[in-house]
Design brief:
Blueprint (H helix, E strand, L loop, with lengths): L1 E8 L6 H17 L3 E9 L4 E7 L18 E4 L5 H9 L5 H12 L3 H10 L3 E4 L4 H13 L2 E5 L9 H6 L5 H9 L4 E3 L5 H6 L9 E5 L1 H12 L8 E7 L5 E4 L1
Parallel strand pairs: 1-2, 6-10, 7-10
Antiparallel strand pairs: 1-3, 4-8, 4-9, 5-8, 6-9
Helix pairs in contact: 2-3, 4-9
Organism: Desulfoscipio geothermicus DSM 3669
InterPro entries: PurM-like_C_dom (IPR010918), PurM-like_C_sf (IPR036676), PurM-like_N (IPR016188), PurM-like_N_sf (IPR036921), SPS/SelD (IPR004536)
Protein name: Selenophosphate synthase
Length: 251
């Protein structure tokens, strides 16, 4: 409903017009989401930082938690992976302008319509995919629900240039941290490439939703998501299994 700007900006080395553009961009996207920015706070910093402290409301009966997943439920993802790798590639000057535009469009797309469709169809559990990567956030679901999961790597949508950028060394530190953290929780198919293992652990900025949907509602959910122009994509990437706490990744 409302939000406060939080800004750190190097005003000694960059013109304030850049901060103005950043704040305007945040205000435009907040307005699209139906959020009113009511103020904020800024400080001088050594690097540009921008975020929003958000206040919202939810009806208790409509909360989708991470703890409702059941064996046999299917996993559906609504944005491709690779944003962390691509933005690191941008920092390393390894990325062409067309890819910059494509990844920016992905990050600019709200999860609002995907969430509304999810509520209409009915799902068992959900999380967004952000800093812990796909497998890190999936682990939160299986831990909270007392189940396990199987991910089919071939079905996971990935920004096409991501593997090439991983081979070029454009891997965020957070990706390596996530991979090490998940070492004991994930059973990797030996045939899976090192690049894909890292991508499945890659932190996402403004990533998609990871939905857990009962098998009998999966087709309805996929159809509704795919026909909505405000949803980037919708792909089935695996299923919930009985073995508690274990995530297996197949090729």
């Amino acid at each position: 409903m409302t939000a406060l700007n939080i800004v750190g900006f190097p005003n000694q080395s960059l013109p304030l017009s850049i901060m103005e553009a950043i704040i305007k961009g945040g205000a435009d996207k907040a307005a699209t989401a139906g959020v009113t920015i009511v103020g904020g706070h800024s400080i001088t910093d050594s690097a540009s930082k921008y975020g929003l402290a958000v206040t919202g409301f939810v009806e208790p009966g409509k909360i989708i938690t991470k703890s409702g997943a059941k064996p046999g439920d299917r996993l559906v993802l609504t944005k491709p992976l690779g944003v962390g790798v691509v933005t690191t590639g941008i920092d390393h000057k390894l990325v062409r302008e067309d890819l910059v535009g494509r990844v920016t469009d992905i990050m600019l797309t709200l999860n609002r319509r995907a969430a509304e469709i999810m509520l209409e169809v009915g799902v068992s559990a959900c999380t967004d995919v952000t800093g812990y990567g796909l497998l890190g956030h999936l682990r939160e679901i299986v831990t909270a629900s007392g189940v396990g999961a199987r991910v089919e790597a071939a079905g996971v949508p990935v920004i096409p240039e991501t593997e090439e950028l991983v081979r070029a060394g454009a891997v965020p530190g957070g990706t390596h941290n996530n991979y090490r953290y998940l070492r004991e929780a994930v059973q990797w198919d030996p045939a899976l490439s090192n690049e894909m293992r890292l991508i499945l652990c890659d932190p996402q900025t403004s990533g998609g939703l990871l939905m857990v949907v009962p098998r009998e509602r999966k087709d309805c959910l996929l159809a509704a998501l795919r026909k909505d122009p405000e949803v980037v994509l919708a792909e089935e990437i695996g299923e919930i299994v009985e073995e508690p706490g274990v995530i297996s990744v197949t090729t």
